[in-house]
């Protein structure tokens, strides 16, 4: 709809404090989706070093994994992927018309579950990087 | 107490209104009326001030008037309205208009959530003012016109686009599937009535359309209200199979049901508690079932 004057960001994302569960789920799903698409390209770039020689791939992976930043990014990637999967399941149920009245609860559940899985994975992901 | 920000503008406009070609008697009468009105207003304001000590609600109301130079810049006016038990946001607005500033403009009619004319943006959510209790809101209560619609004046927005979308789905019963006998009634089963029951409650207030992020970015999107209206007739068995196909053809277009991204904003704000997202999703499934053939 057109505007007689510019209300600026106030009209959408300036209202983020007032967003409800469904809106947050949508924003997070979009965001995680784009992050995963971005990761896909770096993933292909790293994997394609194996085209040169097996050694090149090994050294690339080893040097990457020795960086703390990469380990932390990996935890972030896990969080993003897990949320995207869980919210994707939620959206599947929404599409099937099952349990629409508890869509907000399922969003919170997917958030909590994501948090739990990420916390549980931290020891595995950060193992050896400080050693 | 007065909340009229551009005072001199008010005076100017009253002067220019009263001055030209008024006969002396008329002018005297006018000034008498003015004085009476003023006394009346002063008394009301005093009463209001007295009440202010007791229990008042602080309203912050959006003001904008493109026709008056001093009011072109959008701003918020503060009103302190004495609270009464059971007072709705609409009651408070009417009190503010009648007591403090008669130029405060907003739509209202039935005051009982039937006409759908007073949907506004109250404390960050689209609500029907006559159905929203002041006591449920946190003070100060911020009242703004519906987002994503052109503001005509103060709290009044242009609803034309919304009505266009509503009409695009042919929001009326039509059928060519008549019963056999000439005087036979077109009967609906209780189950079918139950299925469309919630969707018939729509009062065309436009709250859902205003809350929809997708509709805001896509002018051609039908919007939740229009799809709900279409649902009401698509699911009505009395319209017959042929009419259902025709309705689905409208709905499954590019800017029809498939624009919905299930943010649940519309369902969240609907003052009549219509499960809008559920209806949109059901139309989506209908459309898929209609087009997918496995043989």
UniProtKB/TrEMBL annotation, chain B:
Residues 192-222 form the 4Fe-4S ferredoxin-type domain. GO terms for molecular function: 2 iron, 2 sulfur cluster binding; 4 iron, 4 sulfur cluster binding; electron transfer activity; metal ion binding; oxidoreductase activity. Its cofactor is [2Fe-2S] cluster; [3Fe-4S] cluster; [4Fe-4S] cluster. Pathway: Carbohydrate metabolism; tricarboxylic acid cycle. It comes from the Archaea. Residues 25-49 have a biased composition (Basic and acidic residues). Residues 8-18 have a biased composition (Acidic residues). The keyword Oxidoreductase applies. InterPro entries: 2Fe-2S_ferredoxin-like_sf (IPR036010), 2Fe-2S_ferredoxin-type (IPR001041), 4Fe4S_Fe-S-bd (IPR017896), Beta-grasp_dom_sf (IPR012675), Helical_ferredxn (IPR009051), SDH/FRD_Iron-Sulfur (IPR050573), Succ_DH/fum_Rdtase_Fe-S (IPR004489), Succ_DH/fum_Rdtase_N (IPR025192). The keyword Oxidoreductase applies. CDD domains: fer2. Keywords: 2Fe-2S, 4Fe-4S, Iron, Iron-sulfur, Metal-binding, Oxidoreductase. NCBIfam families: dhsB, PRK05950.1. Belongs to the succinate dehydrogenase/fumarate reductase iron-sulfur protein family. This is Succinate dehydrogenase. It comes from Halobellus salinus.
């Amino acid at each position: 709809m057109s505007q007689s004057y510019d209300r600026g960001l106030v009209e959408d994302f300036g209202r983020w404090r007032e967003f409800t569960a469904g809106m947050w789920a949508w924003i997070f799903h979009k965001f995680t989706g784009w992050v995963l698409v971005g990761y896909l390209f770096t993933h292909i770039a790293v994997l394609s070093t194996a085209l040169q020689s097996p050694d090149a791939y090994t050294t690339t992976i080893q040097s990457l994994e020795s960086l703390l930043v990469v380990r932390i990014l990996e935890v972030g990637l896990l969080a993003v992927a897990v949320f995207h999967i869980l919210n994707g399941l939620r959206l599947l149920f929404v599409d099937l018309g099952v349990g629409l009245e508890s869509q907000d609860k399922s969003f919170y559940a997917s958030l909590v579950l994501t948090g739990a899985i990420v916390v549980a994975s931290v020891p595995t992901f950060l193992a050896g990087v400080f050693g | 107490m007065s909340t009229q920000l551009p005072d001199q503008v008010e005076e100017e406009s009253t002067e220019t209104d009263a001055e030209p070609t008024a006969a002396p008697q008329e002018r005297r009468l006018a000034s008498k009326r003015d004085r009476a009105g003023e006394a009346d207003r002063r008394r009301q304001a005093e009463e209001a001030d007295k009440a202010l000590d007791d229990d008042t609600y602080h309203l912050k109301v959006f003001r904008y008037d493109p026709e008056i130079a001093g009011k072109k810049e959008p701003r918020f006016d503060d009103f302190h309205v004495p609270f009464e038990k059971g007072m709705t946001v609409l009651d408070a607005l009417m009190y503010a208009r009648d007591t403090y500033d008669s130029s405060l403009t907003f739509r209202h009619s039935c005051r009982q959530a039937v006409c759908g004319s007073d949907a506004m943006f109250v404390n960050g959510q689209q609500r029907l003012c006559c159905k929203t209790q002041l006591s449920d809101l946190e003070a100060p209560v911020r009242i703004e016109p519906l987002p994503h619609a052109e503001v005509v004046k103060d709290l009044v927005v242009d609803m034309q686009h919304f009505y266009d979308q509503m009409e695009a789905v042919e929001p009326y019963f039509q059928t060519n599937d008549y019963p056999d006998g000439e005087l036979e009634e077109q009967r609906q089963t209780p189950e079918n009535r139950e299925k469309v029951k919630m969707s018939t409650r729509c009062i065309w207030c436009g709250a859902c359309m205003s809350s929809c992020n997708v509709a805001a970015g896509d002018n051609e999107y039908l919007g939740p209200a229009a799809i709900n209206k279409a649902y009401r007739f698509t699911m009505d068995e009395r319209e017959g199979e042929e009419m259902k196909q025709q309705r689905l053809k409208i709905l499954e277009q590019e800017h029809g049901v498939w624009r919905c991204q299930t943010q649940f904003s519309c369902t969240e704000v609907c003052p009549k508690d219509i499960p809008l997202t559920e209806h949109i999703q059901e139309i989506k499934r209908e459309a898929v079932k209609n087009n997918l053939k496995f043989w």
